[in-house]
Write a structure and sequence with these properties.
- The chain is mostly beta strands.
- It has one domain: 6 Propeller (Neuraminidase).
- It has no helices and 19 strands.
- It has strands at 10-16, 22-27, 35-39, 46-50, 57-62, 69-73, 78-82, 90-94, 106-112, 115-120, 125-130, 141-144, 150-155, 162-166, 171-175, 182-185, 194-200, 203-208, 218-223.
- The strands form five sheets. Strands 1-2-3-4 form a four-stranded antiparallel beta sheet, with no helix packed on it.
- The chain is globular and about 40 Å long.
- It comes from Streptomyces malaysiensis.
Length: 228
């Protein structure tokens, strides 16, 4: 496989809908394989939207209001939109603030509070891109910066407060609007190239890929409000 960015095929960005269907991204540098896929319970994987072979597809988010999917393209610095039933992928957002500097650009993505939020791993930023009444992308707003190799992120359920995974530093940072960023987990807790964060109630799930540390990939849990 001649996958852009990594040289190997990769599955990323898993989303699960209420009926148990899993949607995921597959990047393989192959026009017949790269794209958005779905897997129904007891079924076989099926590609529902093709995406450019020059893309490394990274983050996947679903808008529960419309069913639309938003997909980050780390090599091309873009956000793609796919309808709830698949079909043609449409370019939704692009620009220098989504583009890579050395390696990857647009990375993590979430739909939250009337906007699509996107991290840029090379630029160390998290952007808020408003969803207009027509569903198009509004002006890009930088909501956080100075985040060394920021990968995925997740909202805590308290307004725009979020937890961000910093890949190379092996950290998770709590970002609260109007307050200083705070490191809440680090390598002493077992983080090894922190790649993604998910929040379920008061439980936080943190995945580490150990891509450069030489350690073990792992999944750990913590609890909002205290280290765990």
């Amino acid at each position: 496989m001649n996958t852009p960015g990594t040289g190997f095929a990769a599955v990323t960005g898993i989303e699960r809908t209420g009926d148990g269907t899993l949607y995921f991204l597959y990047s393989a540098g192959d026009e017949h394989l790269t794209g958005l896929w779905k897997l129904r319970p007891g079924g076989k994987p099926e590609r529902v939207a093709a995406l450019p072979t020059a893309s490394f597809l990274n983050g996947l988010a679903r808008d529960d209001r419309t069913g639309n999917f938003y997909i980050t393209d780390s090599t091309q610095g873009r956000v793609w939109q796919v309808g709830p039933h698949g079909g043609t992928a449409e370019l939704w957002a692009a620009g220098e603030d989504l583009a890579p500097v050395h390696f990857f650009g647009a990375n993590g993505v979430k739909v939250h509070n009337g906007a699509v939020w996107v991290s840029n791993i090379d630029r160390g930023t998290i952007l808020r891109i408003p969803l207009t009444d027509k569903g198009t992308a509004g002006p890009h707003q930088v909501k956080a910066s100075g985040l060394d190799s920021v990968d995925d992120f997740a909202f805590t359920g308290h307004g725009d407060q979020l937890l961000a995974a910093l890949n190379i530093p092996n950290k998770v940072v709590l970002i609260t609007p109007g307050k200083a960023d705070r490191i809440v987990l680090d390598e002493s807790d077992g983080l090894q190239n922190t790649t993604s964060v998910a929040v379920d109630g008061d439980t936080v799930y943190v995945a580490s890929g150990a891509l450069t540390t030489g350690g073990d990939a792992n999944l750990l849990t913590a609890h909002l409000g205290h280290r765990g």
